[in-house]
Give the backbone structure.
Amino acid sequence: QESKLLKVFKAELEKCKEEMQAEQDDEMEVVQQELTDALDEIKYLKRGCEFVEQEAKTSSAELKQFRRQNEEILAEIAQLRSKNEELSTENELLTERYDDVLHEKIECERVRKELREELEDKAQLEGTVAEMEMEFQHLLEQQEAAKNHLEEAWGENND
């Protein structure tokens, strides 16, 4: 009977062992699947990290490039400000020169007008002098004619 009991116990033990092995195999499969999933997730996260790292390197390089471009732009702005100051100074000098030239032009116009008036006055005076010379010549001729007439009359009177 012992042997029968031992056989039943051994069979029960074997059955328990097989059930435990099946449970262990199931658990092992689940753990292995979880491990595979975890490894896949780690690989995915690693790729994500590599992508983020690459993006960071790219962004860093772009940032350096932007900084360099910004520095170049700031240098250009400084040059343009300097050029603007030079042009402003030159503009002020040209404005002063323009004002001086404008005043000179106005003065020249005034003098030209005065000279034109003087020339007109002179031309009018010359015209008047010419008329007076002609009148004087006419008077001389009349005086000469009168003198000749008087001399004739005097000569006739004396005769």
About this structure: The two ends are 224 Å apart (CA to CA).
